[in-house]
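Input structure tokens:
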């Protein structure tokens, strides 16, 4: 059975969500996907390997390795939990570097994609602001650099609408001049699930395409374009209005099904009618057909985004500092994020 998620028009940047949709349509596990799930202390880690082109087509994601860290408790702004997530992220990222063959002395360029003037899109610049950069020390005073640090530089290239230059062109110029061994690109993503917005971190080794989360597919940051391995780190900060409406139908169906179990049979069908018989793709298509002509298929973000974006940026920056620099003390990681 050959599936193509483009027919479903569900916009998501998360590999785990694409896998879930593909399995629903496929009727079971998709061949060519290897998945491992660990869950501890409220932190769920899913390691997903897309091993061949057939699986890639079926889930709509490139062949590669994907790690998803889901922490619903991040919404509570618990500082202790944030430190645990930073440590978990650092551990997973370190293992990820080993898996793809990045050596411990590799020179790293961190690229914070996004628009710092738009809060949901400011993740990349905020991570760059909090990252521990060291390249200037290696360049100016290499004999004074303590053991346990590696050469790290960082840039927030802005967005095409502000600079008039594609982010990939800016990064390509920097790569040609500074010659890093690895690029880490951070960007905001889009999700199909409200529960995953601002609570999920994805790591992938397939590079990144600026603007893909909102449907703007342009020249990306990939190994093929830049000549350097590129790891993408993303956090979903937005959903489409059509996706939210579609999710509401699922929540309503679940609610009325529970009510039916309590002695009101047939209530779901009476209230939702033919919508209960439509597939997710068909229902989403109907919602988009109503919203798009009115210009109402908006990109939506939670009202608490100001606090969430700062917190998740600090979590990622702290985790990167721990993973990239052996000398960084986990007990004092907060000192590198302010």
């Amino acid at each position: 059975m050959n599936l193509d998620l483009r027919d479903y028009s569900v916009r998501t940047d998360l590999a785990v969500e694409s896998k879930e949709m593909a399995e629903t349509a496929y009727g079971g596990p998709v061949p060519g996907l290897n998945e491992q799930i660990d869950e501890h202390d409220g932190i769920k880690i899913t390691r997903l390997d897309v091993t061949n082109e057939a699986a890639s087509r079926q889930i709509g994601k490139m062949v590669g390795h994907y790690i998803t860290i889901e922490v619903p408790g991040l919404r509570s702004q618990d500082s202790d939990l944030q430190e645990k997530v930073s440590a978990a992220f650092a551990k997973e990222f370190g293992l990820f570097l080993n898996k793809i063959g990045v050596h411990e002395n590799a020179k790293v360029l961190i690229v914070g994609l996004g628009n710092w003037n738009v809060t949901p899109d400011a993740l990349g610049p905020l991570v760059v602001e909090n990252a521990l950069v060291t390249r200037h020390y290696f360049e100016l005073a290499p004999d004074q650099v303590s053991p346990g640090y590696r050469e790290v530089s960082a840039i927030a290239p802005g967005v095409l609408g502000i600079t008039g230059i594609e982010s990939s062109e800016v990064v390509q110029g920097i790569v040609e001049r500074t010659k890093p061994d690895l690029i880490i690109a951070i960007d905001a993503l889009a999700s199909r699930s409200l529960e995953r917005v601002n609570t999920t971190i994805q790591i992938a080794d397939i590079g990144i395409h600026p603007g893909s989360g909102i449907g703007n597919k342009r020249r990306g940051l990939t190994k093929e374009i830049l000549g350097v391995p590129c790891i993408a780190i993303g956090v979903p900060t937005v959903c489409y209005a059509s996706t939210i409406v579609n999710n509401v139908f699922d929540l309503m169906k679940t609610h009325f099904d529970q009510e039916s179990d309590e002695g009101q049979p047939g209530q779901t069908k009476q209230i939702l009618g033919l919508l209960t018989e439509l597939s997710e793709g068909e229902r989403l298509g109907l919602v988009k057909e109503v919203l798009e002509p009115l210009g109402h298929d908006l990109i939506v973000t939670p009202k608490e985004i100001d606090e969430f974006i700062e917190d998740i940026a600090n979590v990622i920056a702290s985790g990167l500092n721990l993973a990239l620099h052996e000398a960084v003390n986990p007990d004092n990681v907060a000192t590198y994020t302010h």
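The CA atoms of residues 183 and 230 lie 5 Å apart. The domain at 5-239+305-336 is CATH 3.40.50.1450 (Rossmann fold).
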